[in-house]
Write a structure and sequence with these properties.
This protein is 23% helix and 44% strand. The protein has 190 residues and is of the alpha+beta class. The protein has one domain: Immunoglobulin-like, CATH 2.60.40. It starts with a helix and ends with a strand. Keywords: Signal. Pfam families: DUF4390.
Amino acid sequence: MNIIRRFYLCCIIILFTLMHSFPAMGASMLALDNLVLDSHADRIHLRFGIRLEDPEPVKAVLQEGVDLWLKGTASLVSKRLFLPNRTLYQQSVEHVLEWNPLTQDFELTLPQKEHLVKSKNLKELTSSHWREISLEMGDWSQLSSGQTYHVELEINFDRRDIPVWMRRVLFFWSWEVMAPIRYELEFTAP
């Protein structure tokens, strides 16, 4: 019986430590600068910018050794009256934000690990590389003239290095740095 009490006490201490070492941040931490849908070479392009409002809480989490993962997922959805809406195209972009304690630099890995950019100033790093993010959303020819469409953009800011087994065991725990942000843009094809 004493062993069971010690086990429960250890679990509570671990949960309490995790709770206080990774403070949750509000949704106001990131802001959308612009959301533009345009056509270029008969392809649909979605452009948007993300601004880091308050870098201090993010700095604190990064300097504790936690890597952060920004993921933006955009969907082009055909609105239908009686049938469920249909997703025509979906595209995502991922950026990894890290702190390097040896060089004292913040590092941002851009999509598909193409290249790594570094800076001593977190706000300058994020503002220069998150100012305009572009996603290709398919052919313009797939849209019917006069039809109403939605572009849905969801942005997640999450801890990257949480093991899968821990996410499953602590399924009730939120590992997000902030709640997902959703934006919608409705338009009618010309």
